[in-house]
Design goal:
The protein has 222 residues and is of the alpha/beta class. It has helices at 13-27, 40-54, 61-75, 91-98, 108-111, 139-143, and strands at residues 2-6, 31-34, 99-101, 119-123, 126-130, 147-149, 156-161, 164-169, 183-190, 193-200, 205-211. The chain has a six-stranded mixed β-sheet with strand order 3-2-1-9-10-11. Strands 4-5-6-8-7 form a five-stranded mixed β-sheet, with no helix packed on it. Strand 1 (2-6), helix 1 and strand 2 (31-34) form a beta-alpha-beta unit.
Length: 222
């Protein structure tokens, strides 16, 4: 299993688009975590992807299937065709299935109670909590987790506290932020264990850390 991790994109849609394509097609990520700021960047990504995939609305899926059927029939009139088999899973549907996101503090949907502050995911047999601001986690969120993914600081960071891993992929804005370069993470789960990699925007590895797990202790984040 491979998980792509990104946070604090702050409207960098072109960078996010390239990163998601890279994670899907090169890394072969099974999941992509977006840790907020902006939560809405994922909606914008879906809209951008949809416009790139569809191109012109004047040429529908029905038109495409009709043209393919006519072409194949012309080549082989006796062929038994199921043109729908030529369509792959809609890319937007796939993205919605594998992208997991959490909102930043102050998000209007979060304030309205329409979305949750955190998300829970299983990575192998480990419980992961996703949050934007780690300081807002409740005691039970922390104590029930093996891994906590968070953002907000704009700096990539890996810490083991109380037997739990706290992982921040850094920011992914278009420009450096006060000397902090844009980065993203990839977590790989194999039978041998979990390994976190942090990469720069040009895909140069800047950090590699094997995650080992011992007994968890009670703790809080202040």
């Amino acid at each position: 299993m491979k998980v792509g991790i990104v946070s604090d994109t702050h409207g960098n849609l072109s960078g996010l688009l390239d990163l998601v394509d890279y994670l899907l097609n090169e890394v072969k990520a099974d999941k992509i975590f977006h840790l907020g700021d902006n939560y809405s960047d994922i909606d914008e990504l879906f809209s951008l992807k949809r416009s790139l995939i569809k191109g012109s609305t004047d040429y529908s899926d029905h038109d495409f299937l009709s043209d393919v059927t006519s072409f194949m029939k012309a080549k082989d009139p006796d062929a038994k065709l199921d043109p729908t088999s030529l369509l792959h899973e809609d890319e937007i549907t796939k993205l919605k299935r594998i992208i997991v996101r959490v909102p930043e503090d102050g998000n209007s949907l979060l304030k309205a109670g329409e979305i949750a502050k955190t998300a829970l995911e299983m990575i192998g047999d480990r419980i992961a909590t996703l949050v934007h601001n780690v300081k807002t986690l409740r005691k039970e969120d922390i104590e029930g987790s093996d891994i906590i993914f968070y953002g907000g600081t704009h700096k990539h960071q890996v810490d083991n506290l109380g037997g739990r891993w706290f992982l921040n992929p850094g920011h992914f804005m278009e420009e450096d932020d006060e000397g902090k370069h844009p980065t993203f993470g990839v977590l790989e789960a194999t039978p041998q264990g979990l390994t976190l990699f942090i990469y720069s925007t040009d895909k140069i590895k800047v950090l590699s850390r094997a995650l080992t797990f011992g007994p968890r202790t009670k703790m809080t984040v202040k």
